[in-house]
Request: fold
Amino acid sequence: MTLETVDRVLDAWDQRLVAALQCDGRLTAERAAEVLGMSPRTVHRRWRALMADGVCRVIALPARPDPVGALFLRIRVLGGRLDALTAALAARPDVPFIDLSASGDEILAVSWTRPGSRDHLVFRELPATRAVTSVSAVTVLHAFAEASDWRHQVLSEAERTALAPDRTPERAELDDVDRAVLAVLEDDARAPAAAVAARTGHPESTVRRRVTRLARTGALLTQVVVDPRRLGLDIDANVLMRVAPDRLDAVGRALAVHPAVHGAFATTGASNLHVAVWVRDLEHLYRFITRDLGGLGVDGVETVIVGQAVKRPGKPAELRRP
Reply:
């Protein structure tokens, strides 16, 4: 059982090529072909088709302000006013994630905020909006896993290891050239050096060296943006749990590496562990809750199924409701 139908699920080879880009967003077709047992021409052709159709995009993750914290918001809205409030939130640069519940009466969002501050959006703007019937906000205490960490489980461990880029993480100050290069790559992390050079005004050789260094040191981090339903994962859900304090870290770490989890966070509030999951159908969601969470000794669970992912990194805000 699924909530809605979408275009066809990608075939096995396309899914493997998407997963390969998750290992290295700037992976070459030649290297992908060598590891996955395909021809470079086929890899080029399939990647080109996936990206031309908008099925798959590779973006560079923007740097976050330092220091920055995050609030998870749950906003209940009067019927008929959901779209207007969602559009207003989507226009805010400090709100990078917005989901609508499948029930159609709740907005789930993430808001960047300064840790420990009295957030103006939560305490003044939303409560003053007549369409809003209630607002709850919890603070993220620790991130066990984020969306950029999620990997589609269609490659072997040996393949993932072979496709991963060589990195020697180091903290280095970025100069204006680095920041200009990264800004261009935010929209298309696979842009060739010539295209980046044309947009930044810096020599192509300089851009090529900078991109190589930024990738090697971990300053350039990429994320593959793809509709999970095209991967056969029809159900998107947020699962809010109560976990005993002495088990919180162990449970969070275990869920961070679960194949279905694309976000795991310790938070304040009655539910102190939040995870976001993609699963094949409602039966798989039921198994996740009863078997996987039950096996970890979780004390309580609330599940909110996402009806529409309105705004996420690399995905333009889409206000049309399903």
